[in-house]
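Hey, resending since the last one bounced:
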Amino acid sequence: MMKKKKLILDVDTGVDDAQAIMVALADPDAEVLAITCCHGNTTLENVLRNTLRVLKICNRLDIPVYRGCPTPLLARKQRAGDLHGKDGLGDVPDPDAPGLELLQKRKAVQAIVRMVKENPGEVTLVAMAPLTNLAVAVQLDPSLPKKLKALYITGGHTEFGGKAAACGRFGFAADPEAAYVVLDRYTCPTYITSQEFSCRNSLPWSFCEQWLAQDTEKAAFMKKITCLSMTSARSADHQTGVTAENGFHSCDTCTVAAAIDDTFVTESDEAAVTVELVGTYTRGAMVLDYEEQLGKKHKAVIVKKADLEKLKQMFMNSLK
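The structure tokens again:
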């Protein structure tokens, strides 16, 4: 019998993180050890509340949730409120949402270090938030990357012309120093799902309607929290008419899918990776060193294509 993949999900729970969490919880091959929270899509307090809301709808409040870093290492705070709503979950509050007293007393960074130490070589860390928690964790325990099974990251652009901070996808641009530290110090197998990957592996809006039409509490919850971001995305699709990028995409869910299923990724590149820290227009941009000018031995796997039929099935299962 195949052992379940042990996952720690590091999130800044907006709508895309909520989708990814629900996919991970529904997958029989995944065991979510914990969820660690970080600033990002919204304030840390909102991220914590949102994470508990998602766990409640999934009847999984047994999973420990940890409070992480409320601010970037050095950068000014950024938010993604225009996409996810001010509260991160579409601005549709739940009067019966779980209280923050359910949070673990231990902080996220210490929890990551402890759980990886207790499960050497078995834990896959799935980073869907700005990488602040991970950067602090490796400062606390420099041997942490050697004990990880793998690291999967949502972040970066593989081409210039991105939306956030001109060139850095939101996660990297929200804390460029943390991204730099993580890509430099985490020498475990590392996989990156970029903004371009997400856009070019989108699912049809017709599938999205089918996904949300399931007659379950989870589907009703997802339909409610995604209304704002879906309306915005469909409007953008209509205005741009860029066929290759049209449709529904959730980069965080693709990151989780890749972490759970080794056959999900069908095409990838390898390159040494770093992050630009000082460029006026490129701060937070991911740099792919295909010509090996950085002199870095460790290379990351840059995900290019994936099995979209498997992704559809994961999405459908997440709301059953």
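DSSP finds 13 helices and nine strands in the chain.

Sorry for the duplicate.
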